[in-house]
Amino acid sequence: xxxxxxxxxxxxxxxxxxxxxxxxxxxxxxxxxxxxxxxxxxxxxxxxxxxxxxxxxxxxxxxxxxxxxxxxxxxxxxxxxxxxxxxxxxxxxxxxxxxxxxxxxxxxxxxxxxxxxxxxxxxxxxxxxxxxxxxxxxxxxxxxxxxxxxxxxxxxxxxxxxxxxxxxxxxxxxxxxxxxxxxxxxxxxxxxxxxxxxxxxxxxxxxxxxxxxxxxxxxxxxxxxxxxxxxxxxxxxxxxxxxxxxxxxxxxxxxxxxxxxxxxxxxxxxxxxxxxxxxxxxxxxxxxxxxxxxxxxxxxxxxxxxxxxxxxxxxxxxxxxxxxxxxxxxxxxxxxxxxxxxxxxxxxxxxxxxxxxxxxxxxxxxxxxxxxxxxxxxxxxxxxxxxxxxxxxxxxxxxxxxxxxxxxxxxxxxxxxxxxxxxxxxxxxxxxxxxxxxxxxxxxxxxxxxxxxxxxxxxxxxxxxxxxxxxxxxxxxxxxxxxxxxxxxxxxxxxxxxxxxxxxxxxxxxxxxxxxxxxxxxxxxxxxxxxxxxxxxxxxxxxxxxxxxxxxxxxxxxxxxxxxxxxxxxxxxxxxxxxxxxxxxxxxxxxxxxxxxxxxxxxxxxxxxxxxxxxxxxxxxxxxxxxxxxxxxxxxxxxxxxxxxxxxxxxxxxxxxxxxxxxxxxxxxxxx
Length: 672
Ligand code: ZN
Fold this sequence. Notes:
six-stranded mixed beta sheet; 24 helices
């Protein structure tokens, strides 16, 4: 599971937090903002501490990075089968264009479209999953295509690709979650082909054994289609199978990385991953996940594979992703304190004791520094991750949870002075509260969400982990967020030395409600519903506590000069409401109460008040804050001496967005 940044653009000051490593003076020359187009801002991030790693660790990271970058085109193809040929075609046009790149309006719109496609790893928006609408004409593109070689690799598909780009009726959405429709037939992603939702559900239902207490993650690494005889079959992502060519490059680099493993456990972990890529056997993936989750000694770590299932409307198939990282040892003190108290948190959580875990195992949490972001984690990236996703592995072996602090730091640095707080926060004292405590409480919220929230609670025996179906992701994120919110306001935080002020939590509470009820709407187009799981979860929580706190006037909606503001009158009661809702969501999850879960989502999480929505968009439009942000990666290179021996790995922050995208497309073209 992953956590995305909550407010794109909240201006928050540096925390006063003792355990973070933010003590160095900020380097003024480092330019965090790299590009801005459509609804996107592209940032850079730093990799502090890389230089201090050993040569061995640096080389390990180097090859894990290569393995990460080689998976890029798998994700593109998973998102939609037309994504890669369209990208090849658009990049050829980009490279060949000979007109005036500044003055030609059609070209400008084309460039924006290409930047959007790059950012989304395909022709559908990374967040809304709606197909992009080109701002240039079909005639312009056809004119440019005519100038390109007759044997260009996309040429045979040209008409089909143009139709996919310009006809809004076809492949309109990559992931459709609308209740009551065939989610597979109406989703443009490429995880299924020529099968209906019913056929897929029957196919996996026949495979599942309800008595299996250690089930594999069915469908995680496979495309589902029909064979020549019309039988539903899986095409497994593996060496020698689907995506062979890209996987071969991944495996080759994992083998190189293995030589630089920090210890035996890590070597075995990489070996298991390679074995899994060779066989495609999901049992081996579980073995790998168990080895991976038990490796807490290594400083360098990585995610590499088919992991999160947000890209599949049925929540089964994993989108390919990779993040290579290393532990930020001083900052990890914070999460280690939380982990060591995991049982206390579990025992005191405001849920029915039947749904608590008797013993919370191995919640391992750390603060990390990302070295590379790839696949589904690039350019839009999570700020926190908790893995593995298999419930039984989490219960038996624990999970690993991370907060990616060089990413949250880049968000924070890039947000200073953008005017958000002045526009949306109700008064000066609240703004001061946010300035002082939002950075630390935001990070702590992520820590709590990832290292305790997702790991807490248990299913009653016999409850199907997929019982909440299409609402599973939303309700799971709701549960983890509520756990984090509830405990952020607990005196335990001060007692553990994680916050230095018992009022600090109010900063996060204020921002959470403001975001859930109002400001996150800036990411939604007028007339559209809220669809993405994390956004739904935030709306569900904020709207529910607002409504259920009305009797005590806990949260007030204040109108001033035609503008809407959120005022929180009683933070303690608000905390109580978070706890109450957590109890209910945990009950829904533990008992698999689909109807109750669906009712909450439908009532609070989906529908947008059009008037408020319009107001939020208006107010945002004056601020020039991008609703979405993502990152360019640093560039790593091996430094050799005159005899060709590797003596160092250099990291540079010089590559811009367009050159990086073009280089990745050329150098890591895994499925050509
Ligand atoms: Zn989460």
